[in-house]
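ligand=phenylalanine
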Amino acid sequence: MEVGRGSFGSKIGVVLATAGSAVGLGNVWRFPYTAGENGGAAFILIYIGCIMLLGIPGMVSEFIVGRHAQANAAKAYDVLSNGRPWKFVGYLGILTSTIILGFYAVVAGWCLQYLFASIAGQINGDAEYVKNYFVSFSSDPLKPTLWGVAFILITHFVIVRGVRHGIEKASKLLMPILFILLLILVVASCMLPGALGGIRFLLHPDFSKLSSSVMLEALGQAFFSLSLGTACLCTYASYFTKDTNLLRSASQIAVIDTLIAVLSGLMIFPAAFSVGVNPDSGPSLIFITLPNVFQQAFSAIPALGYVVSIMFYALLVFAALTSTISMHEIGTAFFTEEFELPRKKSAWVQTIVAGIICVFCSLSVGAYSDLQLMGFSLMDFCDRLTANFLLPLGAMLACLFVGWYIPKQVVRDEFTNEGALRGRLFGVFLFAVRIVCPICITLIFLHQLGIV
Ligand code: PHE
């Protein structure tokens, strides 16, 4: 290992930090409304298929590259390909995660603002009031932008503390709190009158809604949720120890991630159904629909509504933070190692680049709605570009690289920890990364282009 490179200090640290990257707004916010729009349980089944068939093999591939090279993403691909252009897969991942950090921080900033506003008791009023509150907040030229930048700065201060004292410590603290908050909210939501409708909606598949574009949504959501194709997993794996079981860790993280996504659905849908709100109401779900739902659902005991709303936004903030930390780390590790900058300085570089993207994305959905690209607001454009294109592309290249390019012996050694593990599923893994993943992802791209 290079002198001065960080590493995670424990197995639980490895799983919690990587699960922290995976579990984020993608689970708590994006998953429920995407499932709501695309057939509930039918979508979830396709989603779980994508996670098992493509997600876990993809994760293990990125882990293999990162742990073998013990370097930032660009260098990792460079080392393993002896200077061939594969290095660009690393660059692509770094670029993708920086773009995601930029637009993700916008929503994370809104969550932070809503956390403070709920503590101050400001999101209190009828449906019209809550809606106007969001509209006037999000169209303000300054406020949402400042909250987004503040979120990146909070991430920055965790990152500069290093891998073990910053990333690992924060994940060990935040992930258990997040899980407990979620469980409390699920119980509260499922106990509301009429909650059964929401549970049924989530667990009863409506196959008539399935179409090829739903498949694409499920795939994009699966990759986004596992942080796949961004070089994030590759960078974190460079801090794994040699005895980390890569397949087991990937499976544990996928299970935690899926569990939290489904639990988030069980937190949102029963509450929404109980007050007769349509759950497929898109991105505004957590800022307009839910504050209303909480108020109506707990109108008999307003204090409970107050506490639930604080817990909900705290949950979102913690989930977002463990994810932004991972996106930030990719760039920070890259600048530190590639340009031999001290960690503090490279963290600032990443903060500034992501901060600029965040400012423009925030303005594009607020005060300057003419900031558009190809008919989408800059924010939506970045979201679609990454989830539907860059993430699948990054994941496919990682699979091709591990499946076909690097020597099979290196792959086997990493998979089995140099023979310490039996690696009974090695053949299945290799088949998945060589054949299944590339074919599935190519089909999806061709479909997007209207060719198949
Ligand atoms: N997986 C995170 C979520 O679900 C988002 C993320 C994407 C994090 C890419 C890191 C890299 O919210």
